[in-house]
Design a protein that fits this description.
CATH class of the largest domain: Alpha Beta
Strand order of the largest sheet: 5-4-3-6-7-2-1-8-9-10
Order of helices and strands: EHEHEHEHEHEHEEHEHEH
Strand content: 25-35%
Radius of gyration: 19 Å
Structural class: alpha/beta
Number of helices: 9
CATH architecture of the largest domain: 3-Layer(aba) Sandwich
CATH topology of the largest domain: Rossmann fold
Number of domains: 2
């Protein structure tokens, strides 16, 4: 059995995806996603009243704010960068009426992948807005600052730790053969709950940054899947683990 982390809004869908793929897995949510309404309003207003070259959207939970802001603007539409496939899909659905909006995805779905995009290294890319969650994706803003760009960040949602983790089914630690961590925060919350018992398991995560954090925690076997979608994780597991 595999143990995988997801925030509460994604937990059931991910569990169903693993089940349909024939993989015995239990999902755990250690946090919920809570909107920050004041930041959502401020971000939408900023997007609608300012000339911007690029908007970086780091999660599906940030999409609604971007859609709201762009539907109100009279300025030329900026390039919208989605961190991954799910975010891009939701953006395309929300902005379907604005056919002139260009949505791009980095080759590698990480902060480093975004910073490497040629669109963010062109001379006319000076005004960038990042729509993200509290405490997330600081590396993007720092990297763009170093390039001399003007960067405005809005934290439109936050991860709120649950009083108790929520699991998709009953399970025992002795049944687990591997752990999938899709965020650094949830990985650390899991380790905090179970302690050193998790250090001996093989882990799969979705960025080198998270992998380094886990290695520093004493986990010896950590692999990286460059995409965080259920489909990508399932494909990696079937190819590299015994499923």
């Amino acid at each position: 059995m595999l143990l995988f982390t997801r925030p509460l809004p994604k937990l059931k869908a991910s569990a169903l995806a693993f089940e349909n793929a024939g993989i015995d897995a239990v999902g755990v949510a250690t946090s919920d996603i809570v909107p920050v309404l004041s930041e959502q309003y401020a971000a939408a207003e900023f997007l609608s009243h300012n000339a911007i070259n690029v908007i970086i959207v780091t999660s599906v939970y940030a999409v609604d704010t971007v859609v709201s802001g762009l539907k109100k603007t009279a300025a030329a539409p900026p390039l919208v960068v989605a961190v991954g496939d799910a975010t891009a899909h939701k953006l395309r659905a929300g902005l379907s009426e604005l056919s002139s909006v260009n949505i791009a995805i980095p080759k590698v779905h990480t902060s480093e992948g975004i910073l490497a995009m040629h669109q963010l290294n062109e001379a006319n890319c000076q005004q960038v807005v990042i729509i993200k969650g509290e405490g997330g994706r600081d590396a993007i803003a720092n990297g763009l600052d170093e390039k001399g760009m003007s960067v405005n960040s809005f934290c439109v949602y936050k991860r709120e730790p649950l009083t108790r983790p929520i699991y998709t089914k009953r399970w025992k630690l002795g049944e687990v053969s591997g752990i999938i961590a899709t965020s650094e925060a949830m990985a650390l919350q899991l380790i905090e709950q179970f302690g050193n018992a998790l250090l001996a398991y093989p882990w799969l995560t979705v960025s080198s940054r998270i992998a380094k954090t886990l290695t520093n925690k004493g986990i010896e076997e950590v692999a990286v899947c460059q995409r965080a979608t259920d489909q990508a994780l399932i494909a990696w597991v079937k190819e590299n683990w015994e499923y």
